[in-house]
Write a structure and sequence with these properties.
Length: 348
């Protein structure tokens, strides 16, 4: 019986955990090494702060479609399990401009109960709309589930701060997978200056009566307003897209704007009692790991300190779509390192 190839994954956000679980389940011996883990809260650890639902982009290239389709189908299956924190929710996406999509949107036939909303059924000011059933995630519960599934499958963990990619090299490690997220900008050996933060501010409120997600993209002021119900009765209200902003402190005026916009989009939010009646659970600020040119999802061959070839695969730069492309990108990593290993074998 051949020895399992050893993989070290950098990062324990949703991308690192999902990638680790996929690889561990597919015959690799995986260890995730990271400073921050589910249960930790740090501005540079993005996953705990996310709104976390699957809202597909109506206009996507083939690669993006594949990542989202794989993730959506996998998360849909997880929504039938009680301990994942994943639930199914009806969703309504609206835009204040016509998207000018020729023919049927690519989402048709993939997303459950998908349809283009007739223009006469849209609220005032909206020019295009979609409805479908998607999934949302109770973030703390879902991250804990990923980690427990990973360790139950035999995966290993190591809590450590990494300054350089070389810190992930260990004896007998064959593959490094870099899922460092926003930290890819400063991690030695990567130093990707295409990575930048997109600050997002959210408000979590108690509103168990809200069962559907809503999203409105306004072209006039470039605001994104959204309502995302979770399993536990908390509803996430958003949001902002503040490019190259690092401040982790919630801004009261921004929070007020989010609440007002969300109440206008979803009047049932406060059940006619006014915004002051809403129970605010917490204010949230996170840094999305955005990247010029999109996700870096590629493999390369490098040398370790002993002069042996090691496969390095990168999987970061997901921006707002970490959760909705997590399973698709993890499966892509599985294919990439398989192809890289085969290419090395063919040279022998």
């Amino acid at each position: 019986m051949s020895k399992k190839k050893r993989v070290n994954i950098i990062g324990a956000g949703v991308i690192g955990l999902t990638t680790g679980l996929v690889l561990q389940r597919n015959g690799y011996q995986v260890k995730i090494i990271a400073e921050h883990w589910p249960g930790d809260f740090d501005i540079n650890y993005t996953s705990p702060w996310a709104g976390a639902y699957v809202r597909p982009e109506p206009k996507l290239d083939e690669k993006g479609r594949k990542l989202e389709e794989v993730s959506y189908k996998t998360l849909w299956s997880l929504s039938y399990m009680n301990d994942t924190g994943v639930i199914r929710i009806p969703t309504f996406d609206m835009y204040t401009y016509d998207l000018q999509i020729d023919g049927e949107p690519w989402l048709k036939g993939i997303y459950h109960k998908f349809q283009v909303i007739p223009k006469d059924k849209l609220p005032k000011g909206a020019e295009y709309g979609l409805s479908y059933v998607t999934v949302s995630m109770d973030v703390p519960k879902y991250l804990r589930w990923l980690l427990s599934q990973f360790t139950n499958a035999g995966g290993k963990t190591k809590k450590i701060h990494l300054n350089h990619l070389n810190d992930a090299f260990e004896p007998d490690v064959d593959i490094i997978v870099n899922c460092s997220g926003i930290n890819a900008r400063t991690l030695g050996g990567v130093n990707d200056d295409k990575v930048f933060p997109t600050r997002g501010q959210l408000v979590a409120v108690w509103a168990p009566h809200v069962k559907a997600a809503k999203f409105l993209l306004s072209q006039k002021d470039n605001t994104r307003t959204y309502i995302i119900p979770r399993e536990d009765g908390i509803v996430i209200l958003g949001g902002t897209m503040d490019v190259n902003e690092y401040d982790g402190t919630p801004d009261p005026k921004t929070a007020e704007s989010i609440l007002n916009r969300c109440a206008e989009l979803c009047p049932e939010l406060h059940q006619g009692k006014g915004l002051s009646s809403l129970q605010i659970i917490r204010h949230i600020v996170g840094l999305r790991p955005s990247r010029k040119g999109g996700i870096r999802l590629e493999a390369e061959i490098s040398k370790n300190s002993a002069g042996n070839n090691v496969v390095i695969c990168h999987n970061y730069g997901h921006g707002s779509y970490g959760y909705s492309r997590s399973w698709g990108s993890a499966m892509e990593v599985l294919e990439l390192i398989g192809s890289a290993n085969q290419a090395e074998i063919s040279k022998l």
